[in-house]
Amino acid sequence: MLRLSDYDYHLPKELIANAPASPRDSARLFVYDTKTDTVILDAFKNIEKHLPRPALLVFNDTKVVPARLWLTKETGGKIEVLLLMNEYNPNDPLIKGIADRKLLPGMTLFFRSGAELSVVKQEEQFFFFRPSVSVPMLWKLLDQEGRTPIPPYIKHTKLSERMLRERYQSVFARARASVAAPTASLHFTKKLIARLTKDGIAHAEITLHVGLGTFAPIDEKNIAEKKLFSEHFEVTQKSAEAINRAKISGVPVIPVGTTAMRTLESAARKNAILPGARTTNIFIYPPHEFQIADGLITNFHVPKSSLMLLVDAFLKHKKTKRDILALYSIAIKEKFRFYSFGDGMFIR
C-alpha cells in the first residue's frame, strides 16, 4: 500500500535554490540510467551526451502570468490577490482568485489605475471577482501592475520583477495563463535547443496551464480517489502527429517536466496521442503503466508532493533498482540544488 510517509526526506535549507542558474544551461545535471543502474553527474549544457539519437523532446509552452497583485481596499488598506488566469473561462464574467486575508461579498478592490475588482462570492478558500474592465484590459493591467508569482517554498529571491519575468519563463513560453513555470524547461537555451536539433534530437510542444494545485499538499483521499487538481491542457494536431510518428518509428519520446508527462498521459489513448483541448485531474503514482514516455527530464521536488510520486511511478514503471529517495539522497550528498529554481535530473 502506498504511504505518503515513504516520500518524506530532509533537505538542508542551503540546497533550496532561490534563483535559476545563469546562464540557464549552467545548472547541474543528474543522470540516472535505468538499464545499468548508473548515476552520472554532469552539467545541463552537456545533456546531449546523455540523450539517445534520434529522440523527441516534448516541451510545455505555457507562460507564467504576472497575476500577483497588491490592491487597495475602500478603507485604504492593502491586500494581496492572486488571480488564477489558468482557470479563466471566456463564458464566465467572474475571475477566480485567492487573497492573503478575509474578503466579503460586496467589497471593492482598486488597482493603481483606478480599475476595480468587485468581490462577488467565496467558495472554500477561493474568491470570485468581477472586474470593472474588459478581459483584454485586465490582461494589460496584469502586465502593468502585476508581479510574477513564485513558489511558496522560495522565501528569499534577489531577482527583480524584470528578471523574474525573463528567467522564470522557458524559452518556449507562449500561451500565457500559468501561476508557475514548467521548471524543467528553464534549463534549456535557444542555442542548446538548436544544437540538439542539429544532432537529431527533435522537439514538439504541448500546453498545460499550471495551477495552484501543483503546490497543494496531497493526502490519502487523493490516493483513494485517484484524482488530483484539475488543469487545462491542449495538444495540437501537429504535435500529436509528431509524437505518434515517433512512437510508431521507435524513436524515444522524452517529456521535459512533470507537466509535459501529465499531459501525455492524459491525452494518451491506446499508446497514441489524441489531439485536442481538455481538462485533466489525473493523479499519477505507483504503480502506473506509462503509455508514451521513454524517459523524463525533471527537477528535484518537494517532499510528499504529487510531482515526487509521479517521478517515482516512472522509476517503478522502468523497474529500476533504486527508488526516488535513493536517488535524492545521492543528489543531497552531492549538494545539488532543489525545487523550482534548482538543478535538473534526466531518467533514461
CATH secondary-structure class of the largest domain = Alpha Beta
Our Rg estimate from Cα atoms comes to: 20 Å
Uncertain residue ranges? none
Question: How would you spell out the order of helices and strands?
Answer: EEEEEEEEEEHHEHEHEHEHEEEEHHE
- Main beta sheet, described? 6 strands, antiparallel, barrel
What's the β-strand tally? 19
How far apart are the termini? 27 Å
**How helical, in percent, are the residues?**
10-25%
Task: Tally the structural domains.
Answer: 2
User: How many helical stretches?
Assistant: 8
- In spatial order, strands of the major sheet run 5-6-7-10-9-8
Under CATH, the topology of the largest domain can be stated as QueA-like
Architecture of the largest domain in CATH? Answer: 3-Layer(aba) Sandwich
Shape: globular
Query: What share of the residues does DSSP label as strand, in percent?
Result: 25-35%
Function: Transfers and isomerizes the ribose moiety from AdoMet to the 7-aminomethyl group of 7-deazaguanine (preQ1-tRNA) to give epoxyqueuosine (oQ-tRNA).
Family: Belongs to the QueA family.
GO biological process, one term: tRNA queuosine(34) biosynthetic process
Subunit structure: Monomer.
